[in-house]
Design brief:
Blueprint (H helix, E strand, L loop, with lengths): L5 E7 L10 E9 L3 E10 L7 H6 L8 E8 H11 L4 E2 L10 E7 L3 E6 L2 H19 L5 E8 L4 E9 L4 E8 L2 E6 L5 H8 L3 E2 L13 E5 L6 E2 L4 E2 L7 H13 L1
Antiparallel strand pairs: 1-2, 1-6, 2-3, 3-4, 5-7, 6-7, 8-9, 8-13, 9-10, 10-11, 12-15, 13-14
Helix pairs in contact: 2-3
Length: about 250
């Protein structure tokens, strides 16, 4: 049996994030033996003073609010329970308007409410749960990173797929007309994402056709190919993001 009967997460973006980007949501979670039942209500906030042109210019639509109810894989029940079991809350802590707000309320032998002391861990798990909901509902696809390393001697290709629906990741390596598949450690994904998007990604010069010239190329699931050192560049003088990215690439291609 799970150690909680129901958990509610309430999240609001900080006052520093302006509309149309600002949003809030309530996520209710109920465990069962085989899955985690989820009910999400997400709404964008403070848009009343914006006209439609301003909203659409930022890539949004007239109504981006989102609701979903359904079942998540059992692995998410286990992850929520694991974090909840080591969580203590500050019941009287005042929210910081310059930071995102997240509060919990859960029912076990008693009802507990407040802001978790291990707030960063809950920020991250909440974001993972949202992504799991988006993939389970079909709103979004699993994350995919396609790597292509072309030299005069050989062509190396790897595809990293990370499914938040199942909380699993794998790497498919293609070389010499043969492919191999191996699991990728889930706990390494946050660092990979940090390293992957630390450089600047430039759309100018990126191509839709799969490259054939020598070079190292990335396609992060959008069907566009970006070349290392040309469309993927250092964000500024003195930065060393590309060398760290190259180290990760070598691991994925090897």
């Amino acid at each position: 049996m799970a150690s909680f009967r129901q958990l509610t997460l309430h999240f609001e973006t900080s006052a520093q994030l302006p509309p149309p980007y600002s949003y809030q949501y309530e996520l209710r979670l109920k465990p069962s033996f085989q899955f985690l039942h989820a009910q999400l209500k997400l709404s964008y906030t403070h848009r009343e003073d914006l006209d439609m042109d301003e909203i659409e210019a930022e890539g949004f639509t007239p109504n981006d609010d989102y609701e979903w109810e359904g079942n998540l894989e059992k692995v998410w029940r286990d992850e929520v329970e694991k974090l909840l079991n080591k969580t203590k809350v500050d019941k009287n802590k005042q929210p910081d308007e310059e930071a995102d707000f997240l509060a919990l309320a859960w029912e076990s032998d008693q009802t507990i409410e407040g802001i978790p002391q291990n707030l960063e861990e809950w920020y991250y798990l909440a974001q993972e749960l949202l992504q799991a909901i988006y993939e389970t509902s079909g709103k979004e696809r699993a994350f995919e990173l396609h790597l292509l390393d072309i030299t005069s001697q050989e062509v190396k290709e790897s595809i990293l797929t990370a499914s938040f629906r199942t909380r699993t990741a794998q790497v498919k390596k293609i070389s010499g007309g043969k492919s191999t598949l191996r699991f990728y450690p889930w706990h390494e994904l946050p660092h990979l994402m940090e390293v992957l998007y630390a450089p600047n990604w430039l759309s100018e010069g990126a191509q839709e056709q799969k490259p054939k010239r020598n070079g190292l190329y990335f396609s992060p699931g959008d069907g566009i190919w970006y070349e290392y050192g040309k469309q993927i560049v250092e964000p500024g003088k003195g930065a060393a993001t590309l060398s760290k990215l190259k180290q990760f690439v070598n691991r994925l291609l090897s």
